[in-house]
Specification:
The protein is of the alpha+beta class. The protein is built from one helix and nine strands, in the order H-E-E-E-E-E-E-E-E-E. Strands 1, 4, 5, 7 and 8 form a five-stranded mixed β-sheet that branches. Strands 6-3-2-9 form a four-stranded mixed β-sheet, with no helix packed on it. It is elongated, with a radius of gyration of 24 Å.
């Protein structure tokens, strides 16, 4: 009596397999990249009288900070990422940057948590 043999073959398109492998590789890379930096809390914001210069008070003591800014006609979203964060000290750093257009009536949003930031006018900024 002959026994039936089960043979499994991968019938997926080789291009699909390469694509899935690429997606998995990129996903792992993004997870590692996010783990290396964390969104820093923004505790305060100020703008220059002309609305171009922005100062953020960031809860990341002596960390290497990077900033992502997305400007739209209605809002400015900022996300500060802290690398090498010093968690042993409780202090805030200041982060300064300029917008391409004055803040005007646009709202300033913390990209880490989606909170709308209260922006004060600082006469000393932009000098």
């Amino acid at each position: 009596m002959e026994q039936a043999q089960s043979v499994t073959t991968d019938r997926r398109d080789p291009h699909l397999r390469k694509g899935l492998h690429w997606v998995a590789t990129v996903t792992v890379f993004m997870i590692v990249l996010v783990a290396c930096g964390s969104g820093a809390n923004i505790y305060g914001a100020a703008r220059s009288p002309d609305g171009i210069s922005i100062e953020l008070s960031v809860g990341a003591c002596n960390a290497d900070l990077s900033l992502d800014v997305v400007e739209t006609p209605e809002s400015v979203t900022v996300k500060v990422t802290a690398q090498n964060e010093d968690t042993g000290s409780a202090c805030a750093d200041k982060y300064f940057f300029d917008l391409s257009e004055p803040l005007g009536e646009r709202i300033l949003i913390d990209g880490s948590d989606g909170e709308v930031l209260d922006v004060q006018i600082d006469e000393a900024l932009g000098d």
